[in-house]
Amino acid sequence: MHMNTDTHTQLITLCEFYAAHMNISHWRVSYLARKDGQFFKRLTEGKSCTLKTAAFVLNWFAENWPEDLEWPEDIPRPTQKGAAA
């Protein structure tokens, strides 16, 4: 099963915010999140990924998001694994 358009847009948006804030390239974000420097390039070209991959990348952003950068309001943030209840 493949991700929907909203998830596709959310992943690209998170990449753009993160890359700009950290002053790194989309290739570097792709490599950090997926060990695949072409991941976000493929998404911006209109290609897709599986729901499992999308969930993994969303969780990576949630776990690695800079404290001094506000998470985009229109994107639901995954609950961090292992967070204190």
Write up what this structure looks like.
The protein is mainly alpha-helical and 85 residues long. It has one domain (5-64). It contains 4 helices and no strands. The protein is globular and about 30 Å long. It starts with a helix and ends in a 21-residue tail after the last helix.
Q: Short description, anyone?
A:
The chain is 55% helix and 0% strand.
State the separation between the terminal residues, measured CA to CA.
32 Å
Number of strands: 0
**Number of H- or I-type helical stretches:** 4
The averaged pLDDT comes out at 90
Shape: globular
Q: pLDDT under 50 segments (min length 5)?
A: none
Largest sheet: none
Oligomeric composition of the shown chains: single chain
Radius of gyration: 12 Å
Count of folded domains: 1
Task: Note the beta-strand portion.
Answer: under 5%
> Helicity, in percent?
55-70%
Q: Briefly note the structural class of the backbone.
A: mainly alpha
Topology pattern, helix = H, strand = E: HHHH
